[in-house]
Amino acid sequence: SPFHRFGNYKRQPSSCELDRVIQIQRHGSRYPTSRVNDKIQRSLNKIKKIGDRLDKSLEFIKSYRFFSKDSDLVELGRKESYLSGEEFYSRYRDLINKDLSDNGLVHLPFLRSSQSDRVIQSAELFKIGLIDRFKSQRNFEEKILIISEDPKDAYNSKEEYEYDDEKGVWLKLFIRPILKRFNEHLAVGSDLNEIDVLSLMQLCLFDSVAKEEQSKFCDIFHEEEWINFEYYFDLDKYFKHGIGNEIASSQGVGYLAELLSRLTGDIDWIRRDFTKVNHTLDESEDYFPLNRKTFVDFSHDNQMVSIFSSLGIQPIEDLPIEGPPPTNRSFVVAQWVPFASRLTVERMKCRQNHHSNSSDQLELYLRIFLVS
Q1: pTM, entire model
Q2: In a 10 Å sphere around its CB, with 0-12 CB exposed, 13-18 middle and 19+ buried, how is residue 137 labelled?
Q3: Fewer Cβ atoms within 10 Å of its own Cβ: the N or the C terminal residue of the chain?
Q4: What is the pLDDT of residues 313-370, one digit of tens each?
Q5: Are 12 and 345 in contact (CB under 8 A)?
Q6: How many CB atoms lie within 10 A of CB 145?
Q7: What is each CA distance from 124 to 92, 127, 143, 302, in whole angstroms?
Q8: What are φ and ψ of residue 251, in 5° steps?
Q9: Number of neighbours of residue 312 by Cβ within 10 angstroms
């Protein structure tokens, strides 16, 4: 789903002062990946070939032109990323302006991006949005550090785990009545299968974010079917990348070691980690500085779900693979990792005695925000 927030950001108490901010952010809203793109196209072709046998409610598909910009950011995704940079500066302006280089110039946040075009674009647009809020017209020379997504590289956590049984069971159960409706009434002779129907439901989402209005494909399906569709992807992330899969959720451990090093200024958290940390990069001050005040990383939803699990903020839940979707479940993917979602960790120093400025009465606190 496109970016949306829950509640309003609250500034730190007056007795506290922010001294470090670390954020990881998903790329902005995008077109479907090439694999999903191909599946959607096959589904549309099956429907278009039956001609006049198509139900009146689906006639718009005959003239529908499908986009093919694999994985690129849609215009909404570009706006989301740019605005997140503006908001980051507005929220942390004072801290950014205190982060000075040796020659007295203000540092931008230290930016890293995983090596996908849509993620790099999101990072670049974030940077532009942030810079546009500066009153200074000077040129900023800081570059975005690109992290490889090659599975052979140590820090990469973009690996696939084929734990599809859980979502596969639910797919067959919730798609069956929809499939029957298509093949017996809406698109007789199209011979759609489960993946075809799932692809059409995904098209509703991608078409909507591309056009920035609700797609006609959304109206084909009923409210309960959308609830079941949402649960399908909750099962996918929970058992494939989240806390429901011990192997996959461990992929966030490398980021956890980096987070601890950045919060404490202690490189030993990195040196002691032999899981996913790239020691060549992270033990270099140029590629992994610890003396900066703001850090922003850009990544994918799968990696962020693994990080949530490693941090212990993703709850262990009973998600029955045969349904029905629990109405009181905490983990809903569309709410946890919408496009351009972010996990933000703030470190602050707080005075215990509000009337004292004595440094020996300062204590450190952390605040963690999700999608804020």
Answers
A1: 0.91
A2: exposed
A3: N
A4: 988 999 999 999 999 999 999 999 999 999 999 999 998 865 555 555 789 999 999 9
A5: no
A6: 15
A7: 19, 5, 9, 21
A8: -65, -15
A9: 10
